[in-house]
Each structure stands twice: as structure tokens, then as C-alpha cells.
Amino acid sequence: MMEAHRAPHRGVRVVIWSASIYFLVESFFSFSCVFRCPWLAVTICPAVPPCCAVLFLFVLANFTMATFMDAGVLPMASEDEDKDDEFRAPLYKNVDVKGVQVRMKWCASCHFYRPPRCSHCSVCDHCVEDFDHHCPWVNNCIGRRNYRYFFLFLLSLTFHMIGVFTFGLIYVLHHMDELWKLHCTVTLVVISISGLFLIPVLGLTGFHFYLVSRGRTTNEQVTGKFQGGVNPFTRGCCNNLEYLVCSPISPKYTVRPCKKTVIHIQPPFLRPETDKQTPVKARDNGIQSRDLQNKVCMSTVELSDIKQQKTPLPLPPKPDHGLLKSQVAHPVITTHTTAAVFSWHIYCTMTKFLLALRPCCCLFFYCVAQLLKTSEQQGNNKGPDLRSESRGSPVRGSHQAGLPVQPLLQASAVSSSLQLNSLPLNSRSLTLKHSSRHGSKSHLPAMHADGLGSNPPPGIISSSGLLANHSSSSSSSLPYDNLINPSDPQFISQRGAPSVSYHPHFMSLGTNGTVQRPPPHTYSPVFMGVSRHSPHLRDLVPQELTPPKSAAARYDNFSKTIMASLHERRELEDRERMLRLQARSQALYGPDMGIYDIPSRRSLPPDNIRPPGSRGPTPPAYGSREFLMSTGILGYGMRTSPLSSSSTSSLTRGPKTSSSPLQSGSSSSLQSKGRSSSPAYCPPERQTQGLPSSTSTLPRLFPSNASSAPPYTSYATTKRSSLLYSSEGKDSVTLGALK
Amino acid sequence: MRHSASLANKVFIQRDYSEGTTCKFQTKFPSELESRIERTLFEDTVKTLNNYYAEAEKIGGQSYLEGCLACATAYLIFLCMETRYEKVLKKIAKYIQEQNEKIYAPRGLLITDPIERGMRVIEISIYEDRGSSGSSSGSSSVSGSTAR
């Protein structure tokens, strides 16, 4: 429909353009080649014809360039660029150009804020950079790229017409007696046409000379943009002329021949923090992980401390979360950290661990802690190590001995918000750390591989067999991985050997209590069997430790009540964890499964990445429709409200046909602030699609100008807005959004 | 198991018009990239691009000569010779390509040449790790393209 509407106008334009070409050619031929050149060469100067020819060639060349050269058309913005709701985005955006506030208007057709000096040509229906005007004589927009050629065309045409007129007049004056002969008649016609058109062309040339000297475009001149104010785009008269003639030709933006080069983006991705963590990781004694997550290190250290505690601690006050985070940067816990912080870590991690795995594991931990206490009392520095590694952690000395299970369980009850996935991570990291400390890393890769790779339930059976058979703790970790895996595939990535090593015992104890989660049921038979193997506990722990039987007995006494409370917590967290993990999927980074994908920015949905000041989400933009409706301020009177501190953003863009799923992460804020300007200059094309009520109350000073009106008509309509703009331009407050 | 990346977000670095209509981009570090790339790297990239564009738009002897030559040949020279600006654009494209390969792609980011957006914005695409995909349904790599 648009095309049909524009067809007659296009036809008229083509006619005008053709006429101008014809006139040019005709004047050349009729003047120089047929009649006057020989006479002029003889009478005045032999150089006249060549100069005229060159001049005419120059005119034609500039005319061609002005006609066919891209004026600096800005391609339409992709959908991704504009992700704001139409109703919330302001119509104008202020920007500071050399200290002068310039208003950038939203172009509804091209979907971007028009750069300064850019304007939308209604004839050609595109935005043009440094838009001057649309010239019907060349049937093209005049803009940044072709203004020079247009200006030179005007200049050369003026000289050409002056030449034609002058030499024609001289010829006629010398042939007055032959006035009615053909050659004189033609010359008379030519000089009369030349003289007739010379006046407007001369006027136009002079006008553009003036514009160039002032550094303005025709659009700016006609709309009176810088009438009363300072033009920030001028460089001075001489520099403007220099810029006009000597500036490099800017490139074409549309239809560029581009050489597509393929860049592969393959996870895992580097992160800025990970670079700092690299040296720390190296101290993990060979436990390499590609994913250098900070929390892994933190949890590693925390769990190591649990093992080292010698005396039970009361529940310490929860340390500052920031403090916890600070530990991330220093994963190797030394004596520098406070005991209270570590205690809290221990509680948190233990709770997560327990809730994630089995309710019984806390009880087991208690047993282990007791064992550790007794073992340390005996002078054996073996902690609750199910791997038969001797513990020589330097950290031990700085922390208290093993915490009792009961406080841990209490902590677990209150720490339901803790993330479950870090718990198995912690337990795994604990194993890794301890094994690294003790230098026995051989089994770790195996643990890794099994932990990650083995999924099938049959692994349980085989592992249970292994459980029953193994006698050395060094290999005990291997089957435990298989036990863990089938229960929850998602846990594969999160749990490791160390947690697995606890598993059978927890499960065995847990069967006495309540086993709720479906996955654990898969364990049940296995652990039922395992539970009976109390001597296994002896196998799993170093020989120096006291037999676990006594610990298990003690555990039975308070297991049931604890299990009940834990059960509730665990169910909630299980659900939470499942959702999270499913959404995230297994973000594994290779076989080195010492590191797990703790919820980080990366794994969060894009919404979380949204900056607070983005155009998308939360607070309604000043001046936006939402804001207006929320504050109840409607109508023009809003100027006096806080809204008036925002610019013309009282006007909104209007509805958009397409919506983009992506957020605009642009650093520029569309919350433009500044003096609210005039106003009712509504967006042209989409007005009829239902303006927001806020703008509808604003007076419309002039109608939309979407149709293909003559260019100067459009100047008139914009002139009023520009006048208003110029009056307020001085008062505008700098947004600073773009700075 | 192969990891795949998916486009999560796009950041648009806007033009800095404080010095007029010369091509210059803001060096303000967007918040979306805070956890993805170091600030210094980003700022270096944008500053280098700004320098390239300043070099392309510089009014000097070369641009003057180019204009005169073009006039003298009735602009027929444009048919066989590329302008200085175009030459710098090629350098810019090469630089962006190199930055993408060395710095941005390993961090899951991709810079789009501003010329493709009409020199209005630098578009930085942010990719997220979609985790491992055993099947071939997900693309295991994302292809970026740079102009020229």
C-alpha cells in the first residue's frame, strides 16, 4: 500500500530528474558544439571551448555522484537493539555535544535513536546521517556522504550557467543582424532558459555557501535548531569549508560486501575472577579443574576444618556473608581466618552435606567427629578419613576439633536456604583436599572418572560388592562414586568421592529412620546390606580409629527425631535443587570433576544479568507511560512534577510491532532527564496505533508527518518543535547517561 | 559430552557524541560484562577502535590528495581505488577479528563490527554455557562474523 501511494510521487520525481538531465545535455550541445564554440574560439579565446567542456564534465560528474551516491543511509536497527517496551521508553534522549544539549529522537521506522544531525527522509523512508534535504532534482537524499558532490554540483552548475548565459549573450550581441536565423534563435532560447534558471540556482548556491560557513545543514536551518543558540557542530568558517572539501568520504553502511569469518565460541569460558584463582588452584597439589570456581575452594577449606576440630563448639554467630565471600579469594585457609567463621562454614557445609545426601550422614559425621577426637587424643592425627589417609593438615592446629553432630543438625535446620549443591561439592572437595594433603592422589582420578561417568544403577550392585570386599580405604572411594551416581544424576557433578565414601554408612543408618527421597531408595538395598557390615566402618577408617560400633549405637538414639526435622528441610531443598540443576544442566568442565558448577552468574537465567538501569525491567522510566500511570500524573501539567526533570521523555515511543527477547545491555540510559520539552511531537508512524494515555493528554501542536510530503513542508512542521527545543536547549540538564 | 554456548544477551556500546559527530564510542564499562571480562581489556579494545576511527576521519594531506584526485578524474578513481576510510575499516575489521579470537571468544563474548550497525553501536554478544549436550541437537560452537 505504501508503495502504491508513493508511485505517483516517484513518477513525478523521475520526470523532474529527467528534465534536469535533458536540460543540461541540451544546453551543452546546443551551445558549445553546434554554434558557438568555433566562433568563440576564434573571437575570444581558444581556451574557452575546452574550459567550458571541462566545466560541463564537472557538472555532470557531480550531478551523477549526487544522484547515485548513498547519502549515508543508516540501516535499520536489529530487534535486539531495542528491547524496551514502547510504552516505557522515552521519545527523546538528550546527549551532550561539546557542552550543548542535543536531542536525539527515537525513529519509529528505523528503531533507534537518531544520532545528532541525523534525520529520517520521508521520501526515501530511511534515516540519513547528517541529513541535509531531499533534492528532487537529483532524486536523492543529500546527506553526509554526498553533500560535497551536491554542493560542487551546485557550484559548477552555477558557473556553467553563468558561462552559457554570458557567452551566449556575447554571441547574440555580435550577431544582432542575424537574430532571426536559426543559430541565433537557438542561442537566444538557450540564454533565456539559462538566465531564468540561473537566478534560483545562484540563490541556492549562495544559500549553501552560507550554510557551510555556519556549519549547518538545510534541515537545521529550516527548522531553526540553532537559531538562538550555539551550534556545536561548527568548526569555524574556514574549517567548515575545509571539512566540506577535504574530509574523507565516510563509508557506506548498507549493502556492504563483508567477508564472514567464523569465530568459534566454545565453553568453558574464562572469567575475570578465575584468573586470580589460578595460582591458588595450583596449590591444591595437582587437583586440576578447568572450572575455577571460587566457592569450590572455599568449601574445600571449610570441610577440611571440620575434620580438624578437636572439641565441640557451640553454635557460633553467623559471620558476615561478605566475610564468607572474601574467603573465596583466599581458598587456602590458614590461621588467618577466625575460628568463628570457620565454625559457621562448618555448620553450613555440614548442613548442606547432610541435607543433600542423607539424613543419616550427620549422624555419621558425629561418629566420625568422635572418632577423630578419640584418635587425636590418642595422638593419631587421622580425622574422619574414610580413605585411610593420614591427616597432617596444617589447618588443624588452627581450628577446633570436631563438632558434635547435634549442633550441626541444628544448624542444618536453620540453614535451609543454603544451597544443596555446594554440600556435596564440599564433601568432595574435602576428600580432594585431604588426599592432596596426604599426597595420595592416585585414587582421586579414578574417583573423578567414576563419579562422573558412571550412571547406571548396576553400579550400585557392583560397588556394594566392592564395598563388602575392599579392605583398604584407598580404594573404598571408588565404589562409593557409583553408589552416588544412580541416585541422582545431577548429583554426579556435584558430589565426589569423599561424599560417596560416607554414603553407605549414612544410608544404612538412614534406613532406620525415614528414607524419603526416591533416589535414596535405590540405595536402600545396597546400604541395607552395607549397614550390616559394621566392620566396614573399620575398613573405611584408619585402623587407628576406634571401632565405629559404639558411634553407630550412639547415633541410633537421636537419629529419629533428627531425621524427621531434617526430612522436611531436605525435601524443600531437594525440590529447589532439582529445579536449579535441571535448569542449569550439568555444567561440567571435563573429567576433572573436582570443580562443580556452583550457581554463578553464568548459570543464572539472563534476567539476572540485567543491569539495574536497563531499559527492560524494574522501575518505570521517568516520563514513561508506566511512570505516569503509577504516579498518577497525566497531562501536560506534569512539567511541574518530578517528571519534568526528565526530558521530553514525557513522550513515549509508541507501540512496536516486534518485540525482542534480549535485554538491551546498552550503557546508555533511556531514562533521559532534562527539561521536558515540548511535547506533543508524537512519533509519526505509530500514532494511530493507540497512543498511551499520558501522551494523549498532551496537546498536539502538529500532526504526524508520515506521508511523503514535500521536504520543505516537513521542515515547517518540525520547525515549531525545534523552536521549542532551542528555547529550552540552554536549560536542559545534562543527562550524563551517555557519558 | 560437548559444551554448547547459546546467546544470552547483547550489550550495546553507544556512540560518544561529546566531540561532535566524529566516530567515537563510549568507554564506559557496561555492568553486564562485569563478570565476564576484565575492565581494562574492554577499555583497551574500545580505545583502540576509537583511535582507528579517528585516524580514518582525520583531515589531512592524504584526504586532501584523495579529494583532488577524485575531482580530477571526475570521480572515476573510485571505481578502481578504495578510499582511505575503507582501508582503515579493513584494519578495524581485522583488529576486531583478532580481539574476538584472542580475548572475547574465550570469555564467551563476541564483538560485532560497528559498521554493520551503521556505526551507531558496538554490539557485544554474551554467550552462556548451556552445559553439555550429548546429542547433536545443540550447536557446539557459535559462529561469529565480522565484516570484511
From TrEMBL, chain A:
<keyword id="KW-0012">Acyltransferase</keyword>
<feature type="region of interest" description="Disordered">
    <location>
        <begin position="591"/>
        <end position="625"/>
    </location>
</feature>
<feature type="transmembrane region" description="Helical">
    <location>
        <begin position="38"/>
        <end position="60"/>
    </location>
</feature>
<comment type="similarity">
    <text>Belongs to the DHHC palmitoyltransferase family. ERF2/ZDHHC9 subfamily.</text>
</comment>
<keyword id="KW-0564">Palmitate</keyword>
<keyword id="KW-0812">Transmembrane</keyword>
<dbReference type="GO" id="GO:0031966">
    <property type="term" value="C:mitochondrial membrane"/>
</dbReference>
<feature type="compositionally biased region" description="Polar residues">
    <location>
        <begin position="686"/>
        <end position="719"/>
    </location>
</feature>
<dbReference type="GO" id="GO:0019706">
    <property type="term" value="F:protein-cysteine S-palmitoyltransferase activity"/>
</dbReference>
<feature type="region of interest" description="Disordered">
    <location>
        <begin position="377"/>
        <end position="401"/>
    </location>
</feature>
<feature type="transmembrane region" description="Helical">
    <location>
        <begin position="12"/>
        <end position="32"/>
    </location>
</feature>
<dbReference type="GO" id="GO:0000139">
    <property type="term" value="C:Golgi membrane"/>
</dbReference>
<feature type="region of interest" description="Disordered">
    <location>
        <begin position="639"/>
        <end position="719"/>
    </location>
</feature>
<feature type="transmembrane region" description="Helical">
    <location>
        <begin position="185"/>
        <end position="211"/>
    </location>
</feature>
<feature type="region of interest" description="Disordered">
    <location>
        <begin position="432"/>
        <end position="482"/>
    </location>
</feature>
<dbReference type="Pfam" id="PF01529">
    <property type="entry name" value="DHHC"/>
</dbReference>
<dbReference type="InterPro" id="IPR001594">
    <property type="entry name" value="Palmitoyltrfase_DHHC"/>
</dbReference>
<keyword id="KW-0496">Mitochondrion</keyword>
<protein>
    <recommendedName>
        <fullName>Palmitoyltransferase</fullName>
        <ecNumber>2.3.1.225</ecNumber>
    </recommendedName>
</protein>
<keyword id="KW-0472">Membrane</keyword>
<keyword id="KW-0333">Golgi apparatus</keyword>
<keyword id="KW-0808">Transferase</keyword>
Automatic annotation (TrEMBL), chain B:
<keyword id="KW-0472">Membrane</keyword>
<dbReference type="GO" id="GO:0002178">
    <property type="term" value="C:palmitoyltransferase complex"/>
</dbReference>
<feature type="compositionally biased region" description="Low complexity">
    <location>
        <begin position="132"/>
        <end position="148"/>
    </location>
</feature>
<dbReference type="InterPro" id="IPR051371">
    <property type="entry name" value="Ras_palmitoyltransferase"/>
</dbReference>
<feature type="domain" description="Golgin subfamily A member 7/ERF4">
    <location>
        <begin position="11"/>
        <end position="123"/>
    </location>
</feature>
<feature type="region of interest" description="Disordered">
    <location>
        <begin position="129"/>
        <end position="148"/>
    </location>
</feature>
<dbReference type="Pfam" id="PF10256">
    <property type="entry name" value="Erf4"/>
</dbReference>
<comment type="similarity">
    <text>Belongs to the ERF4 family.</text>
</comment>
<dbReference type="GO" id="GO:0000139">
    <property type="term" value="C:Golgi membrane"/>
</dbReference>
<dbReference type="GO" id="GO:0006612">
    <property type="term" value="P:protein targeting to membrane"/>
</dbReference>
<protein>
    <submittedName>
        <fullName>Golgin A7 family, member Ba</fullName>
    </submittedName>
</protein>
<dbReference type="InterPro" id="IPR019383">
    <property type="entry name" value="Golgin_A_7/ERF4"/>
</dbReference>
